[in-house]
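Exercise 7b. Backbone tokens:
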């Protein structure tokens, strides 16, 4: 006789501040988990990039080589390389272990807001205030990009990649999705400058945050508006939006010092995390756990679910 499988536990949301890292990098412009969520990168206004174990609160290495503040970074699938971008108009490829810059890509005409690796970490994709998305070959010595996507009419604020797509958000109010297999560009107009975009984990939807203090969930294929989420404040800064690790909730940073989460299906406000007094500049959601990193001013905070116990907390 087969027993029914136990009902899966209700998805939990980060609720409890477990740790605060004083980064010592000036203002933290971005915080990003690595591919497996064991480490994170912080981008500083003091031109440095730092690698951390946020779960233990330890700084592992500092990377110096940009000429102005670092605005975004990403780790490769094998944790061997990093890419970063800066207000100095460059994109850098780093060796994680040695801390050396392996390549510097110069081609953008203005500050570079966002950067991502493709799945194999052979291409770096960057988006800039110069209104272009550029693709750089990590294996080539050629200084020029392999492709320039110049459809945006204003600065590119956010880029994300899937296995065969580039998703970009622009200040011109458009979400653009480049399907590289089909050679097609799909464009959705939101009507307000976009600060951040991301794919849902199931690849069916895209989430866009914009300066009218609204998050919008769009059907990736049809562009249909599936949900609108409001309650946070986003009118001035380039703030991040995220989806929880099981796609059950959408989240967004806010200028009022909180992080807000909404139920994806119902659209109701599920939680607000009091991170600090200043603007919450950047967010990163763990790939597999209910765990959030939030950057505000000079620190990064690690938030976990209510039932979380640190190793060493449990009594024998």
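Sequence design result:
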């Amino acid at each position: 006789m087969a027993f029914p499988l136990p009902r899966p536990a209700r998805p939990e949301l980060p609720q409890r501040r477990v740790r605060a890292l004083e980064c010592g990098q000036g203002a933290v412009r971005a915080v990003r988990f690595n591919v497996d969520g064991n480490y994170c990168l912080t981008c500083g206004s003091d031109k440095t990039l730092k690698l951390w174990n946020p779960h233990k609160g330890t700084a592992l290495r500092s990377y110096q080589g940009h000429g102005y503040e670092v605005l975004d970074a990403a780790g490769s699938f094998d944790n061997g390389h990093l890419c970063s971008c800066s207000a100095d108009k460059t994109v850098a490829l780093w060796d994680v272990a040695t801390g050396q810059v392996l390549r510097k890509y110069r081609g953008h005409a203005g500050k570079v807001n966002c950067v991502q690796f493709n799945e194999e970490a052979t291409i770096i994709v960057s988006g800039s205030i110069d209104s272009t998305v550029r693709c750089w070959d990590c294996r080539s010595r050629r200084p020029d990009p392999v492709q320039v996507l110049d459809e945006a009419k204003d600065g590119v604020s956010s880029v994300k990649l899937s296995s065969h797509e580039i998703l970009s958000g622009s200040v011109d109010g458009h979400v653009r999705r480049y399907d590289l297999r089909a050679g097609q560009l799909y464009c959705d107009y939101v009507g307000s400058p976009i600060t951040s975009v991301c794919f849902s984990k199931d690849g069916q939807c895209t989430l866009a945050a914009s300066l009218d203090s609204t998050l919008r969930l769009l059907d990736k294929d049809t562009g249909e508006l599936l949900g609108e989420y409001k309650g946070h404040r986003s009118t001035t800064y380039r703030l991040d939006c995220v989806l929880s690790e099981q796609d059950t909730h959408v989240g967004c940073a806010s200028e009022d010092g909180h992080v807000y989460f909404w139920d994806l299906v119902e659209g109701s406000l599920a939680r607000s995390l009091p991170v600090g007094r200043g603007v919450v500049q950047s967010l990163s959601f763990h790939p597999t756990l209910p765990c959030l990193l939030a950057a505000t001013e000079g620190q990064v905070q690690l938030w976990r679910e209510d039932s979380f116990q640190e190793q060493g907390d449990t009594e024998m």
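Instructor comment: The CA atoms of residues 252 and 292 lie 11 Å apart. The two ends are 37 Å apart (CA to CA).
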